[in-house]
Design brief:
Blueprint lengths: L11 H5 L16 H21 L9 E6 L5 H12 L3 E5 L13 H8 L5 E6 L4 H8 L4 E6 L5 H15 L6 E5 L6 H10 L5 E5 L8 H9 L4 E4 L11 E4 L10 H7 L18 E3 L20 H19 L4
Parallel strand pairs: 1-2, 1-3, 3-4, 5-6, 5-8, 6-7, 8-9
The structure holds phosphoric acid mono(formamide)ester.
Phosphoric acid mono(formamide)ester binds next to α3.
Length: about 325
């Protein structure tokens, strides 16, 4: 989006407390350590408010257009829940085949149409750079809800908030990412965010699904210690956060390669025996076979709690870009 004027509905002093007012959320690269501290403070307040009153009218009268060109359960429904818990409303377009996209309407024209009716647009799209393209044409804020194998910034923000709420800190932790690190946009965004902290990273994947070189170069340039592995055994005992990802069938052109790698790692109670008692297992979900359901009752299984933290982070983001937090 182009730069918006100051919010006419806020006194001048309040503009400073709305640091993302009118801004797009496209990449984790736009966040500093101080930004994250502020955002997570607001997200924590949202958690307290939801637990206390459920729904409140911070965004009453505001409208979110939720535009999903790819399937989603968590991101789309948590943005909808976030908007509704803040008293706002949603235009849901999750089946673009029923919209004018099926008649060949371009992404720029689609967002220029939706912004006539909405105050903010959440976009998931299969192509890298699609959110940035939408933002170039839109006057209203665009929030990137996943652009192909590029980034998924709101997921990384909720992942970091989960670590903070569950373990009380990020600095000093050893975080192990496991699975498809090549196509997994969540681990790309999370690695970049974690580079703002004092952490050690372990990347465990099959050789053909390693973390992309550009992300490793960024980590190296920032002095973040990391190591790469093909098996989990050596790094599991030191791990404070095990971040498991799905091998994504939809990203493979050759189904045989997917079949050969889909079950490389499976987390279950036996595999987790050498892990610390106080650590957490996260997963952006959906999962297929990479975490057995028999692990779900283990207190270290944080992946369902992680989804709930996503609600609070998305409430905070919506309130901030709309100048109300
Ligand atoms: N984690 C995540 O993005 O889930 P959905 O694809 O269900 O939105």
């Amino acid at each position: 989006m182009t730069a918006l004027p100051l919010n006419p509905h806020l006194p001048l002093g309040d503009q400073r407390t709305a640091p993302w007012y009118g801004k797009d959320i496209l990449s984790v690269r736009q966040f500093t350590h101080d930004d994250l501290k502020f955002l997570f403070g607001v997200a924590h307040e949202m958690r307290v408010m939801v637990e206390r009153v459920g729904t409140f009218d911070l965004l009453k009268g505001k409208i979110l257009a939720s535009l999903f060109y790819e399937p989603s359960t968590r991101t789309s429904s948590s943005f909808t829940a976030a908007m509704e818990r803040l008293g706002g409303s949603v235009i849901p377009i999750s089946e673009v085949k029923y919209s004018s996209v099926s008649k060949g309407e371009s992404l720029p024209d689609t967002v220029r149409s939706l912004e006539c009716y909405a105050d903010v647009i959440v976009l998931r799209h299969p192509e890298i750079g699609s959110a940035a393209l939408a933002a170039k044409y839109a006057r209203k804020p665009i929030i990137n809800a996943g652009d192909g194998v590029g980034e998924h910034p709101t997921q990384a923000l909720l992942d970091l908030f989960t670590i903070l709420e569950e373990l009380g800190k990020v600095d000093g932790l050893t975080i192990t990412m496991l699975g498809d690190l090549k196509y997994g946009r969540t681990v790309h965004s999370l690695s970049r965010l974690l580079s703002l902290y004092n952490v050690k990273l372990n990347f465990v994947s099959p050789d053909i699904l390693k973390m992309p070189a550009d992300i490793l170069e960024e980590l190296q340039a920032k002095g973040v210690p990391f190591s790469q592995h093909t098996t989990l055994d050596a790094v599991l005992p030191e791990t404070d956060v095990l971040y498991v990802t799905r091998v994504q069938k939809e990203r493979f052109e050759n189904p045989e390669i997917y079949e050969a790698h889909k079950n490389t790692y499976v987390i279950n109670p036996g595999v987790m025996r050498p892990a610390k008692e106080k650590m957490i297992v996260m997963h952006p979900l959906p999962r297929v076979t990479e975490i057995g359901i028999e692990f779900d009752e283990d207190p270290r299984a944080a992946y369902f709690r992680q989804m709930e933290y996503g609600l609070y982070v998305r409430m905070a983001l919506l309130a901030l870009v709309l100048g109300k937090a």
